[in-house]
Amino acid sequence: MGAALLFSLTACATGAPEEDNFPTLKFNESLTADVTAAQLEEWTVQDQLPVAPAHGGAFETMTNALRAADPAPDVVIFGDSMTQQGLDPTELGHLLSDATGDEVSVFNGASSRARWGMNLLLAQYVVSLEDPPSVALMGISTRAAERDDFYTTEGAKSPFSSMVEGCDRPHSDSWGDADVARCERDHADPLFRFRAGGDQIARAQDGESAQTSLRIKEGSRLRSDGFMIHPGVSAAEAQEISDTRMERGFPGFPTVHDEAVADFGRATELLRSHGVTVLAFEIPYTPVHQANLEEAGRDYDARRQDAAQALTAPHDVQLIPVDEFGDWWGDGDSRDAIHLAPQGATKFARQLTETPGFLEEVEAGLAD
User: Fold this and answer.
1) Which end of the chain is more exposed for a tag (fewer CB within 10 A), N or C?
2) How far apart are CA 227 and CA 22, in angstroms?
3) Where does the source fall among the domains of life (predicted)?
């Protein structure tokens, strides 16, 4: 494991934008500083604070980085943690630049545990920015077609959601009068909005800008291009992790929920209404985990790809299928049985650009 870990951490360092300093922050810290509402508003406008505290520190940092990106990205990637960790945006940008002959900037906006409710929230934020991207790449993982309970229970309740999505939402079991009241107070009162932003406000008081990169823990960081980096493991360790997961029981087949299909459609429609070309690509599990699942459940991978089609086809989104990672996959390429590590994410970027149809579709979107 030592060599794989060293390689991954080296890739993390060299791939990071030069301005990344990876600060350590405490999130959900109570606001105790003696500040005024006017100061909070001013610091927000000056990019010293986030739009508002989000449901998670990595997501908040990613949205800060997207707002601060200069130049604004030409391509923004959506998806969950498999995409967040599995597709290196800087490497993809280099490959697209080489292919098109023009400088192409790519940003990874995927986030942990996100399904399409969370990605719809991100899409609303993206189109609110001064310069939306030309292309949105929707990463479709094995579980991408499931409903987004994480969004309804946490993401939608955050001050960030209040400021981005507003308060006039359909009433449901997950959005009631108390949620509307809290949301309206987030809008009206900056001191309430930043009630759990103590550490972020301390940075602003020190004259610092809102964090655009983040140290998660030893060896794990979020870059300012939105890419999450974790150390890699050997292929044998990935196999062992997969075997251990399978010993807990078969996880069930890929599932398609109507709510996910609808949320994916709303995100697609919103982005298209702002001139963004929407494309989708599949991102599979590691070869060893896919093999275990295929052995345990008949036609598991075919069902995965059927679920991807069920999510994208109703909305006429071009889907780039990926049956499996290429023969490049091996030691150091994965973080575990499911997620890629930086070394593998760089290689997967190349595999995508070599997949039939991908470059042509992206280039057409960039040209529109």
Assistant:
1) C
2) 12
3) Bacteria
Tell me which residue has tokens 């823990």: 217
Rg (CA), the chain: 20
Residue 266: alpha-carbon gap to chain centroid: 17
Within 10 angstroms of residue 353's Cβ, the number of other Cβ atoms is 17
Nearest to 226 by CA among 91, 59, 362, 94: 59
Give per-residue pLDDT as tens, 89-99: 999 999 999 99
CATH class, range 2-367: alpha beta
> pLDDT tens across 132-188, in order?
999 999 999 999 999 999 999 999 999 999 999 999 999 999 999 999 999 999 999
Q: How is the chain split into domains, by residue range?
A: 2-367
Give strand pairing partners of 280: 138, 319
Tokens 């939105």 sit on residue: 226
- The amino acid at 212: T
Instruction: List phi, psi (to 5°) of 111.
Output: -145, 160
Q: Which of 130, 132, 121 is nearest to 74 (CA)?
A: 132
SS3 assignment, position 246: helix
Give dist(CA 213, CA 221) in Å, integer. Answer: 8
pLDDT digits (tens, 9 = 90+) for 309-334: 999 999 999 999 999 999 999 999 99
Alpha carbon 111 to its chain centroid, in Å, reads: 3
> Residues with Cβ < 8 Å from 73, sequence gap 6 or more?
66, 89, 105, 106, 107, 133
Distances (CA, A) of 262 to 145, 172, 282: 10, 16, 19
Residue 202 sits at the vertex; the CA angle it makes with 197 and 207, to the nearest 5 degrees, is 125
